[in-house]
């Protein structure tokens, strides 16, 4: 009786265990943003102290850049907060896609970073400037690089663990800022050796590196906006479904990211002589296995089609709509 009752009631794993996991992922994302914001703020303050007595315009630009980059945590934090809101009759899938919007903002900021770095490099190439206290400027460059690289690794690692493309993109953005800080270090070294032109040349080289990072971040966000998923996830989902007792074969299988959680829509084929209750029980079991065994899958809609030896087309009515 309990099994029959379960067949007629909605599957509860997506509203309990999976919702708890989603909230935990959002909490981890917020935690990462808070820590990385503090790390970047400390880095920028340390650089600002050195700017005060070195008078380095290049370091000033890098310092202001790091302050601005720390603020990229704001749109991501808003997106994570929105993603925790429950679905409504207007936003029936919830607000997880706010992360994709934040990702677009981050990509635009990376593009702005590349444009700014290139502009400053060309300007210094046309009008070279002497830099004072080169040792301190070099130290500030090292501080900026180490701070940004630590934040980049932290954001990228956690972003991939919780499936947040926006957090990964923000990590890639922090890495571009580390490159910019490294340019300050290398430029200061060149100036110390009597090659003032080294600073703008290195700046142009770093601009090219930032463009490559921009390409990777833009591609990551583009894939999410186009509902792309790793084909290995599709293969894994098919293996889970075909191993489910009662599933003859898998028809269509669609996966999509909504924020940092997956949703699935599946057509399975079952024996045509099964009763409605039996066919529904197979579908519920398939959904149950998918939710438990496919990483970061929060919910699945499973449709059962009858199989058989006859030539009947059970979807004839829909043929003109496919």
List keywords for this structure.
single chain, 322 residues, mainly alpha, Alpha-lytic protease prodomain-like, Alpha-Beta Plaits, 2 domains, three-stranded mixed sheet, elongated
Note the topology.
Blueprint: H1 2-8, H2 17-54, H3 57-70, H4 73-83, H5 98-126, H6 134-162, H7 165-192, H8 198-225, H9 231-242, E1 249-258, E2 261-271, H10 276-293, E3 297-307
Helix pairs in contact: 1-10, 2-3, 2-4, 2-6, 3-6, 3-7, 4-5, 5-7, 5-8, 6-7, 7-8
- Percentage of helical residues? 55-70%
Q: Provide a count of the helices.
A: 10
Portion of residues in beta strands equals 5-15%
Oligomer: single chain
Largest sheet: 3 strands, mixed
CATH class of the largest domain: Mainly Alpha
Q: Catalogue the unreliable spans.
A: 1-20
Number of strands: 3
Keywords: Cell membrane, Ion transport, Membrane, Transmembrane, Transmembrane helix, Transport
Domain Cation efflux protein cytoplasmic: 230-306
Biased composition (Basic and acidic residues): 11-20
Protein name: Cation diffusion facilitator family transporter
Outline the structure in words:
The protein contains ten helices and three strands; from the N terminus they run H-H-H-H-H-H-H-H-H-E-E-H-E. With 322 residues, it is mostly helical. Strands 1-2-3 form a three-stranded mixed β-sheet. The chain starts with a helix and ends in a 15-residue tail after the last strand. The protein folds into two domains: 209 residues, Cation efflux protein transmembrane domain (Alpha-lytic protease prodomain-like), CATH 1.20.1510.10; 93 residues, Alpha-Beta Plaits.
